[in-house]
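Quick one, tokens below:
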């Protein structure tokens, strides 16, 4: 028996709330190709949370 992993997607609003980024920032990242987006109809856009998380890069600190 094989088990398939189901991918989960989130709305722009959910991604913005979760990361503290604005919807406008996410849309800009999609427009320039830095963030993949998936369409599920003419007005429905969904994001893979893992793709959104990769936008977040740790800032190095000086010790």
């Amino acid at each position: 028996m094989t088990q398939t992993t189901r991918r989960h997607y989130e709305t722009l609003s959910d991604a913005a709330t979760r990361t503290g980024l604005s919807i406008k920032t996410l849309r800009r990242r999609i427009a320039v190709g830095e963030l993949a987006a998936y369409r599920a109809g003419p007005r429905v856009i969904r994001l893979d949370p893992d793709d959104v998380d990769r936008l977040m890069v740790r800032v190095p600190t000086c010790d």
